[in-house]
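C-alpha cells as discussed.
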C-alpha cells in the first residue's frame, strides 16, 4: 500500500514498471507481484497513471464505484471518497470504464467521463486533459470554474475545510493558474480577484480537544 501524505504528491513505480503519481491524501493498493492474467490495483483518492503496454495483461484500476481497464496508456482517475462524482480523463491510448459493474464506456484521447454516484448518471466530454492532471506537476488550473469547485480542489490539496457563508458565492466563475504558491498566498490572490474575504476559524474540537483540519470561512464583500 502506498499513500500520499496530505499536501504532497508522490511518484511511484509499480512492479510492471508502470508509473503512478498519487495526489494528496490518496492511497493505492497493489500486489508485490502481479497475477499472470492481469495487473490489478485499488485506488482511493486521485492518481495519474502511465501504464506499460501489455495487451495480454490488462492494467485494471478499481475504485469504489467504477473500474478502469487499460493496456498501454496515460490517464487520470479522481475518486476521492467524500465526492459524489468520480472522473476519468484519458490523455493517450484507450481505456474502458465500467460503471457499477454494469455499463462499460470506451474513452478516446482527450475525453473525460464524469460519473455521479448519487444518481448513477454519467457524461463524456472532450476536454483539455492537462487541466485535470496538472496537479502532478504542482500546478492547479482553473478555467471559468465555480468557486465551489476551486475550494474543493484547494481543500483536497492543502487539507483545508472551506465554509461558504453565502451559497451564491459557490457559483462565482473563477479563472487562475496556481503553481508553487502557499495556501496563504493563494487566499490572498483569491481575495484580490474575487469579491470575497477569507478568515481562519478555530479548529479545536471542544469534545476531545484534538485539532482537526484547518477551517476557513469565506464571506462575500458587501457591495461587490
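Sequence:
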Amino acid at each position: 500500500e502506498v499513500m500520499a501524505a496530505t499536501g504532497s504528491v508522490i511518484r511511484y513505480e509499480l512492479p510492471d514498471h508502470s508509473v503512478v503519481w498519487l495526489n494528496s491524501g490518496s492511497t493505492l493498493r497493489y500486489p508485490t507481484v502481479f497475477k499472470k492474467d492481469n495487473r490489478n490495483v485499488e485506488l482511493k483518492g486521485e492518481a495519474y497513471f502511465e501504464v506499460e503496454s501489455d495487451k495480454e495483461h490488462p492494467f485494471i484500476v478499481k475504485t469504489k464505484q467504477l473500474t478502469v481497464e487499460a493496456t498501454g496508456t496515460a490517464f487520470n482517475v479522481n475518486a476521492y471518497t467524500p465526492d459524489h462524482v468520480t472522473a476519468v480523463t484519458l490523455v493517450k491510448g484507450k481505456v474502458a470504464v465500467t460503471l457499477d459493474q454494469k455499463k462499460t464506456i470506451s474513452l478516446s484521447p482527450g475525453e473525460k467521463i464524469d460519473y455521479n454516484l448519487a444518481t448513477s448518471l454519467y457524461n463524456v466530454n472532450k476536454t483539455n486533459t492537462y487541466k485535470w492532471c496538472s496537479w502532478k506537476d504542482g500546478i492547479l488550473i482553473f478555467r471559468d470554474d465555480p468557486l465551489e469547485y476551486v475550494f474543493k480542489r484547494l481543500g483536497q490539496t492543502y487539507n483545508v475545510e472551506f465554509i461558504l457563508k453565502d451559497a451564491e458565492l459557490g457559483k462565482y466563475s473563477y479563472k487562475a493558474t496556481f503553481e508553487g504558491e502557499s495556501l496563504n498566498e493563494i487566499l490572498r490572490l483569491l481575495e484580490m480577484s474575487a469579491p470575497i474575504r477569507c478568515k481562519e476559524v478555530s479548529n479545536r474540537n471542544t469534545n476531545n480537544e484534538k485539532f482537526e483540519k484547518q477551517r476557513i470561512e469565506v464571506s462575500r464583500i458587501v457591495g461587490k
